[in-house]
Write the structure tokens for this entry.
Amino acid sequence: MIIIDQIFTHGSGGTGDDTVPPGITGLDWCHLVSTTSLVELTAFLTLNLLTIGQPITNVRTPLLGSEQTYAGLDATMRAAAITAGASPNRIPYVRSNGFDAPASGPPYWEP
């Protein structure tokens, strides 16, 4: 299942959870995750590239330094993702239900 949280205005520090993900300009964005796998997330983005506009090359993963796998989306991309089938949820639910969410403690997106 593909889930998405609400748009959040992040701080301008550019570190930790305020790290602006690739493909995003500005401080207002949200997280798109898969509850199943990286394959599901990248397939969703690939199939909906023309409507969402976020390529799979912009997916953040632990191998690239994030705490869990996600794609950052701005408000326009978020609306397109929901139209394409992403299920909107609150931030804590999305953070804790991604397929690679940390098992203990509150999960964070970026160290």
Notes: The radius of gyration is 12 Å.
